[in-house]
Amino acid sequence: MSQMPKNGWRSLSLFSGGGGFDLGFEQAGFTHIASYDILKEGGNTLRNLRPDWQIFSDEKGDVTKVDWRLYRGLVDIIHGGPHCQPFSIAGRQKGKEDNRDMFPEFIRAVLEIEPLIFVAENVTALVSKKFSKYIKEVIEAPLNSQYKLIKFILNAPDFGIPQIRKRVFFIGFRDDKYLTKYQPPQPTHYWHHLPTNQSGKPIKINLFEHLEST
């Protein structure tokens, strides 16, 4: 995606890591307000990329200790990916029993700042039956009175990224006029050239070997 012109919207980043979300929103025309991540290395990486940005990391990036009301009126959209380990199979799927579960902190930031829109992403296991109660109680219930929430799954290869990675996105809208205009991203890449059998189903192949031969 080419650099979009400034759209006048201001964004705040939580759980920023190396800045994937941050740089994407910047490229889409948003004005960066601040980034927070508890990892010192993540903050250093992002500072090297954007030395003029307001970046909080290490102890200063601990979202559990921030009074988000200081940003009320200064932020239009909050985005971030709360830690996925509480929901991933590799993380043993302990949900809210896992002390790494930061979704409640993301929700707290949204409620204290009251942005027009928020975007949160996580592993697709979060929308499995196992965590249906968690979604209702931890994510939806606190927000229902102020935000209309939609969720959908995106897969990295559908957007030209050479990695099989699916993620679920939660987007909340405080104003219906933005909800009615919004459409989830549509795939930009398709694999119609992959070989199929007589039934039209794709043949299992080594994708990298196939790409090298085409």
> What sequence of helices (H) and strands (E) makes up the elements?
EHEHEEHEHEEHH
- Mean pLDDT, as a whole number? 91
Principal-axes geometry comes out as globular
Low-confidence stretches: 207-214
Instruction: Supply the CATH class.
Output: Alpha Beta
How would a crystallographer describe the biggest sheet? 7 strands, mixed
Terminal residue distance: 25 Å
Task: Report the helical percentage.
Answer: 25-40%
Structural class by secondary-structure content: alpha/beta
Number of helices: 6
What Rg do the Cα atoms give? 19 Å
Give the CATH H-level superfamily. Answer: Vaccinia Virus protein VP39
Q: Strand percentage, roughly?
A: 15-25%
**What's the total count of β strands?**
7
CATH topology assignment: Rossmann fold
CATH architecture call: 3-Layer(aba) Sandwich
Strand order of the largest sheet: 3-2-1-4-5-7-6
Question: What's the number of structural domains?
Answer: 1
Walk me through this protein's architecture.
The chain has helices at residues 20-27, 40-49, 103-113, 132-143, 176-181, 207-213, and strands at 10-14, 31-37, 55-57, 77-80, 117-123, 148-155, 166-173. By secondary structure, it is α/β, with parallel strands linked by helices. It has one domain (10-188): Rossmann fold (3-Layer(aba) Sandwich), CATH 3.40.50.150. The protein is built from six helices and seven strands. The chain has a seven-stranded mixed sheet with strand order 3-2-1-4-5-7-6, with helices on both faces. It is 25% helix and 20% strand. Helix 1 links the parallel strand 1 and strand 2 (31-37).
